[in-house]
Amino acid sequence: MDQKIISLAAEKTPDRLQKFLQTLKEDDLANLLQNQAVRGKAAGALLRAIFKGSPCSEEAGALRRLKIYICCIHLVESGDLQKEVASEIIGLLMLEAHNFPGSFLVKLAKEFVGAIKEGSLTNGKSLELLPIILTALVANKENLDYGKGELSGEECKKQLINTLCSGRWDQQYVVQLTSMFKDVPLTAEEVEFVVEKVLRMFGKLNLQEIPPLVYQLLVLSSKGSRRRALEGIIAFFNELDKRHNEEQSGDE
């Protein structure tokens, strides 16, 4: 079946490919892609073919594309893929993000926010996609359903960032998340919100994890809140020094 999909994708027009994909159940297609990816066999070619035959201009095509996109995120996070296969899939997903309508971009972003809050990420590799999805959302000019009302793409992004920064961050992904935000278009208010979240995480990390976090926070603060970031870092080390001195005095 995979070879048929790839061969149909090679035709000049996607008509026959689209018709064939419509005859398949989405779960079967996702399972086929998963099996090929785990075996390391032409997963990239198959994924490109599925995207080609799933245009966002048609509801069925857009829904199939969304299902396969989310399937790929889970695949990359599973740790079951060879490094080269995972990188190829991530690269393809990066290219495809901007083709989604705004409502689907919101769904994808919520998928990430939920996974981060629940601590269900396995390796965090898929986090490379979130800045691209949020950037595409900001560029979207239509009003989108969000919560109980309609918001612009920019307002949706703000709500998503607020939700993300209000929730739990797994200790092992704090540095990665801080690094990720440097690639997200942020307002001054959003930068301040993210900086405060990162500073709150300092006390929850092991000491050896602090230097890379300080570096990423300083890079992020080039977008704004530089003074607050520096004050927070200095306050953290002053408190650390104070505790160390107290422990030494207690030992003596």
Automatic annotation (TrEMBL):
One of its GO terms (biological process) is DNA repair. Signal peptide: none annotated. Pfam families: FANCI_S1, FANCI_S1-cap. Residues 64-249 form the FANCI solenoid domain. One of its GO terms (molecular function) is DNA polymerase binding. Residues 1-53 form the FANCI solenoid 1 cap domain. InterPro entries: FANCI, FANCI_S1, FANCI_S1-cap. This is FA complementation group I. The lineage of its organism: Eukaryota, Metazoa, Chordata, Craniata, Vertebrata. The gene is FANCI.
